[in-house]
Specification:
It contains twelve helices and twelve strands. The chain is of the alpha/beta class and 307 residues long. It folds into two domains: 133 residues, Creatine Amidinohydrolase, Chain A, domain 1 (3-Layer(aba) Sandwich); 100 residues, Creatinase/methionine aminopeptidase superfamily (Creatine Amidinohydrolase). The strands form three sheets. Strands 4-3-2-1-5-6 form a six-stranded mixed beta sheet, with helices on both faces. α4 packs across α10 and α8 packs across α9. The radius of gyration is 22 Å and the shape is globular. The model has no long low-confidence stretch (mean pLDDT 95).
Length: 307
Amino acid sequence: MPFEPDEAGSTDVLRLKSRQKAAELNQHVLGYGALAEAEWHAAGIAAPNLPAMRQYRLDRIRAELKRRDYAGALLYDPINIRYATDSTNMQLWVAHNPTRHCFVATEGPVVLFDYFSCEHLSDHSGVVDEVRPAVSWMYLYSGELTEQKVRRWAAGIADLVKEHGGGISRIAVDHINTEGVEELARLGISIGNGEALMENARLIKSPDEILAMRRSIVACQAAMGEMEAALRPGISENELWAELHRGNIARGGEWVETRLLTSGPRTNPWFQECSSRTIEAGDLVAFDTDLIGPYGFCADLSRTWLC
């Protein structure tokens, strides 16, 4: 057991202790590790003030909401949820399976709808006011019960809008299927373009965001250095590409968006995906990093090397 029950053996007490323990061990609390920190120190890049960065981002979203006269924003894109809450949960999975979302009220709370008992994943953020279990109505999960689950989901969103919308019944949504649009409309909630709202909110970076971006780039460059050291005749494109993944993850990065690495005759035309081809002496090796590194920032660097 990761904790000891109290004398009463209360389930609520056990859950609270479990949540507190998990929150203390969240990856965003533990940080990026000695390797990344040493490289950032050597590069002279100070640590960003994360509480200030999170508040800045939330203020940016709310400024756009006010400017566009929305009651709030409903966000499904994990990049947008990260921007609003600085919390993560199975980022690639939720990118194509709508199982986690967030409601940011223009004048009111930030409510994160997450997997059951996942409150610990956002306890560090300081900007999430409430975590509720997400109601997922994608067909994979709900099947023939989709209509029923859509109604349950929409009722929860409509309640938030009515309580915190100040009489405004229009919200911005970044991604949503037609069933959700129709059910919200039935409840009197209209929808605007959440992608436009979030792109404009994210447009201007704070000084802390710039520090985080610079750190992500340094981590990417270090991983590229390890790739270059591994480049030799006889290694396959896939094996070399794996070095970038390894280096990114080792420094607390998250994933790589593409597979754009090619060698020799595969370098032209561009947009071949990396393969099992064995790299030979004298080959050119070209790639784009396209990685999501530390702090969730993309580092898209391109290089061409001679093997």
